[in-house]
Design goal:
mainly beta; Immunoglobulin-like; Porin; 3 domains; 19-stranded mixed β-sheet; 13-stranded mixed β-sheet; 11% helix; 46% strand; globular; Carboxypeptidase-like regulatory domain-containing protein; signal; CarboxyPept-like_regulatory; hydrolase; carboxypeptidase
Length: 828
Amino acid sequence: MKNSYLLLSLLVSFFSFAQIRGTITDNKGIPLSLVTILEENTYNGTSSNEQGNYELNIKKTGKHTIVFQYLGFKTQKINLTIDNFPFIQNIKLAEENLSLSEVLINSKDNPANAVIRQAIASKKENSEKTARFKADFYSRGIFKVKDLPKKILGQKVGDLNGAVDSTGTGIIYLSETVSKIIFEKPDNLKERIIASKVSGDNKGFSYNTARSTIYDFYDNTLDFDSKIISPIADNAFNYYKYKLEGTFQDENNLMINKIKVIAKRDAEPVFEGYIYIVEDSWAIYALDLDIKGYRMHQEFVDVMKLRQNFSYNKNNKIWAKNTQSLEFTAGIFGIKFNGKFSYVYSNYEFEKAFVKKTFTNEIVSFEDNSNKKDTFFWNKIRPIPLTIEENTDYIKKDSVHTVRNSKTYLDSIDKKGNKFKIFSPITGYHWKNSSQKKSFNYDGLLNLSSLSFNTLQGWNLDSGFSFRDWAAEEEKGKTTSISTKFNYGFSDDRLRATADYYHRFNNQNYATLTVFGGSKVNQFNPEEPITSFINTVSTLFFKDNYMKLYNKEFAGATYGQDVGNNFYFKGTLEYQQRKPLFNTTDYTFIKSDDIYSSNNPLLPEENLIPAFEQHHLTKAAVFAKINFGNKYISRPDGKLNIRNYDYPTLTFGYENAFASNESKYEYQLITGQVRYDFDAGNKGTLGINLKAGTFIHGDNISFVDYKHFNGNRTHMGTSARYLNVFNLMPYYSNSTNKSYFEAHLEHNDKGYIMNKIPLLNKLNSTLVLGFHSLAVPDRKPYTEFTVGLDNLGFGKLKVFRLDYVHSLQNGIQENGVVFGLKILNVLE
């Protein structure tokens, strides 16, 4: 039956609609993919698929001139008289014969350099010709996996809803979109998606959009996470060598220069491959370039191949990009990935200017029923025909999706997974009703992943229950969860419990309500500068118990939501009762005469003096975050805000403590923060984090409510960037109840310097320079200077960082090394 559906689909695709169709091969009969096919002097074009098949939509019968263009082969121009559709036209392309004149060979100056200089000098003019346009846009993405294991980190992977076979091989993503776009350089975009299709997903709202496909080689750099230098950048000769492979005439009798692009230094963020430049106009004719993964600091990626083809219109004399493809291979831990994204731009309309308000903050929207288009629609409008593999995947996954989302199937799977086993009370239990979209989870009595150690509780571990209902999530984004957490400390012999209720109202402004309460141990610093894992290791192996805790009994509620697409607001009301805690154990793994420090951060040698007196109060707090210039994508299943990194992020906070058992504990706190990443192009990124605050009536408040700063005495770093931590500062040495100002600056050169240093460039690391400063009243400022190497590791596993730190305060200087293991914050 499945084969019958596939045959029917192929027949419908082949014998319908106003199209010129056929297969393109070389002289040996080998199919050619990514051949550009277009109607002469128009921007109506398409591309061939991996089997050499193509489909070109033509609006009317009559005489047409069709151009077949493929890099390395002679361009063919064919005059056709079409009486009816479909019209079958197979093509054989012959290899291009490049010529290289003796004059160029004998030239003292590298002839390729002369062409590149002309292209650089003319790129502003050529870029301006395509600066503003309207166009039809098509995108198709496919992502495959090979050798996917049955389990990862002990968790079953399964067949990914029918995507992979028993060998762990298959297509795990296939999607298409058709849209109309309006674009203005450098980054103004308005896209209306007409049709969207995702294999195995009946919602069908693809994440393929034009905003992720804009790679303009007339710019100096292209963003692939790292800034990759264009072969015709202003400073391109600092990074590239060039070789003129030869020249040929295109169908318009224009001479095209084929130039090989060669990296001067292996570790630099550069392309390699070929760029084709049109003589006289010096416009880009085509690109066929590779980017190695380590040059983007994406070690999981082996290589990424980018191809672009441009077409020429004699009427307006503009070279415009008509097709683009992006292919990659990647892998880690023996798992191999490869993918390909194909894009077609057609029916250009170039504009001198757009009217005001053409571009708004909404950059992508979907037409109604864009995900409901049938096979006939797609076969009519799809510019690149599906391969047999892709067509099979659509049919297979649609069938799998229908079966696996039926109530009968879901109930059978749930029945199997919901079986209560004899050891479930100890190891945990999970129940799920997939058809009603409800689940229940019990962590078990031996939740060893939560096991940790501190000197107040000794060994302690968690258990808990949780319930989730997401029945309305798919349509409106509503979801509800209720959870409890039980924590038992073996040394202090105390069970503490917390509970919270969470509800998200929608997926447009993401309004959420959380109600919470219970009893737990809290770090004095609510930002928790030391993780449970790091503290456990530091305490048991080095007898450094840096984590300082108090007991908090509490009840409260938080409400937050987006206001527009630039503003986020959150408000919290919470009652708290605080009680000091004392060490209850001196257990350690090592033999040492050292004793643990007390739980009083102010008096570490005094085990019997608490850091504060027991008390209670109520807190009301409001928090606001502003991201200027945000854009957004309007999807039927939710709104996605797109951050504009050209502007800083501002946050403001106000906290009021009242209704205390003693008025001395009451205060107000006003805070502000500025975060900004300054993009220095290929020279790296400067991260800036500035924070300030002031207390009102805070002279006699509890030490719990002081402003505490994120110090570090473990010499371990757990975050990707150190923009919120002082790397050598003792944890509570500068806590204040007055005013404060802290500044964190960190520049990552993204390899700009390191790539040029012999031997060190083999590490493929990045240089990180940092400055950190803290000012509080009655003390001299605390200052740190850091220099380090990031992106260190073995092979494709680049998760390490190493920093040398020099600190200064009150005339006391300290030097140290911080070893960064970025995976630790994930494990926590």
